[in-house]
Amino acid sequence: MSDPRRSLPAVSQLLADAERAGLKDLASRAELVEAVRATLADARHRDGVAPDVGWIEAITARVQSAGRPSLTRVVNATGVVLHTNLGRAPLAAQARRAVDDALAYSTLEYRLAEGERGSRQDHLGPLLCELTGADAALVVNNAAAALMLALNTTAEGGEAIVSRGELVEIGGAFRIPEILAKSGAVLVEVGTTNRSRVRDYALAISPRTRVLLKVHRSNFHMSGFVAEATVPELVTLGAERGIPVIHDAGSGLLLPLDAYGLTGEPLVRDSTAAGATVVFSGDKLLGGPQAGIVVGPRATVGRMAQNPLARALRPDKATVAALEATLRLYRDPGRALTAIPVLAMLTAEPGDLRRRARRLARRIPGARTVPGHSAVGGGSFPDCDLPTTLVALEVESCDTFLRALREHDPPVVARARDARVMLDVRTIGDDEFGIVVEAVRRAGWPGVATP
Ligand SMILES: *Cc1c(COP(=O)(O)O)cnc(C)c1O
User: Fold this and answer.
1) 313 and 404 share a domain?
2) Domain boundary among 283, 309, 332
3) Which of 204, 220, 295, 381 is 20 to 30 Å from the Cα of 84, by its Cα?
4) How many angstroms separate the alpha carbon of residue 291 from the centre of ligand 1?
5) Are 437 and 430 in contact (CB under 8 A)?
6) Among 189, 204, 196, CA closest to 225
7) Domain co-membership, 327 together with 373
8) Ligand 1 atom nearest residue 168's Cα
9) Does 11 map to a domain?
């Protein structure tokens, strides 16, 4: 038997064919050679079988995908609103425009009135204080950095008291005991996994105690025989002993969402009102850019701003611009709920989602709508499954179909359930329906009208 790999075409042959087919206009010669080599290598891996779609089509696809940036916009059809892998919160239009503007020269650290040097924090501090009721605010790169800075500032060389029920892992490498160790503080555990009381903290206080830390259990819920000390109780205890309280609230909820069935996340304002120093994310429920926000008493936040670590963790101008624009939207809560995509998606009416799902399904002949659930994601509201309506596609192989959707430009990321591909309109914008329909058509779904 002769080895079929021997009969593969030569690089020079395919290159000439590709150039004759017009690929010269899509890519440089070096890029073409690379695409030809990679396509041949693929065929060699398949024991010398030529690509199903033909050599030129396969080389064209390679050239196109190589030309695409690695970080690219996608359509999120998963229904997971804060999808960490897809960049968490999509920004409001106002925030995107603000970023675009700020990427020219800007007033990042410049006071126009005086013509003098200013601070990048000046764009955010007053707004954050207004919206949370705090005396002072500081913004850094993300909430993990903010917590590290808060602990390093208050407790380096001393002790931090934390409940055993709150020594949590938030995802990836973020574990409270490890962050504490890196901050230079010694962890003092109190209480038990399921029950901690304020008395446990009081008994653990020593001359070395520098801070009481409370951590929101973002991504899981404990129920049954449980008890925990509240932020106001801890602040009262701390005030008696001259010890600050840091509350890692996680998700950054600035508006109550109980009316929409979303309960269980701490409202930032409640913790600042109690007198705690509160740490939270910019790109979770707040719906802004990746950022770590600290609000609280001037004494604690001011010391954090003076810490040399703050300089190493400072936010860039795109973050400052996007966060300022997002926060401004919160001045009118009604406007925030419609203009901030995360809040709009979380508070979407079930009836509206049903109508939108039907509208999408009508453009995909044979698709059905079925009831289902969306998730908040990002370790927020872990117990809340939001009722939604899904567009269900019965396909031969979900994996193959989902891959084809991801290969579309722009890619569409969806999920499979009950051996069907599911599209959740909660996270698909009305202006993205056309992209989804075209991706479904190109993935091989029959009967979809060509655009
Ligand atoms: C998400 C989260 C963090 C980390 O926030 P990042 O902005 O992703 O760094 C820290 N603490 C809690 C409780 C969280 O939920």
Assistant:
1) no
2) 332
3) 295
4) 10
5) no
6) 196
7) no
8) 13
9) yes
List the one residue out of 361, 442, 447, 377 whose CA is nearest residue 403. 442
142 C-beta closer than 6 A to ligand 1? yes
In a domain? residue 447: no
What number does the ligand 1 atom closest to the CA of 218 have?
Answer: 15
Say how far apart CA 346 and CA 82 lie, in whole Å: 10
Q: Does a structural domain hold residue 338?
A: no
37 and 139 co-located in one domain: no
How far is the centre of ligand 1, averaged over its atoms, from the C-alpha of 280 (Å)?
7
State whether 358 and 403 are in the same domain: yes
- Indicate the pTM of the whole model: 0.92
Lowest mean pLDDT among 46-60, 263-277, 337-351, 434-448: 46-60
Rounded CA-CA distance 77/82 in Å is: 12
Summarised one tens digit per residue, pLDDT across range 59-75 is: 998 998 888 889 999 99
Within this chain, do residues 60 and 101 fall inside the same structural domain, yes or no?
Answer: no
**Do residues 222 and 194 lie in contact, with contact meaning Cβ atoms separated by under 8 Å?**
yes
Q: Is the CB of 216 under 6 A from ligand 1?
A: yes
Q: Which of 82, 140, 169, 170 to mutate to test the pocket of ligand 1 (most atoms within 8 A of CB)?
A: 170
Decide which of 292, 308, 332 is a domain's last residue: 332
What separation in Å is there between the alpha carbon of 261 and the centre of ligand 1?
22
What's the gap in Å between 397 CA and the centre of ligand 1? 37
Distances (CA, A) of 257 to 54, 333, 343, 382: 54, 11, 9, 14
The answer as to whether 191 is a domain residue is: yes
**Count of structural domains within the chain:** 3
CATH code of the domain in which 419 resides: 3.90.1150.110
Examine the domain organization and report whether 406 and 436 are in the same domain: yes
**Quick check: CB of 265 below 6 Å from ligand 1?**
no
Please give the pLDDT value at position 2.
62
168 with 151, same domain: the answer is yes
Contacts of 348 (CB under 8 A, 6+ apart): 426
Beta strands in 230-380 (DSSP E): 245-250, 277-281, 292-296, 368-377
Asked if 399 and 315 sit in the same domain, the reply is no
Residues 285-326 pLDDT 10s: 999 999 999 999 999 999 999 999 999 999 999 999 999 999
- Of the listed ranges 259-263, 353-357, 362-366, 426-430, the least confidently predicted one is 259-263
Kindly give, in sequence order, each residue whose CB lies less than 8 Å from that of residue 432, ignoring residues fewer than 6 positions away: 75
CATH number of the domain at 237, please: 3.40.640.10
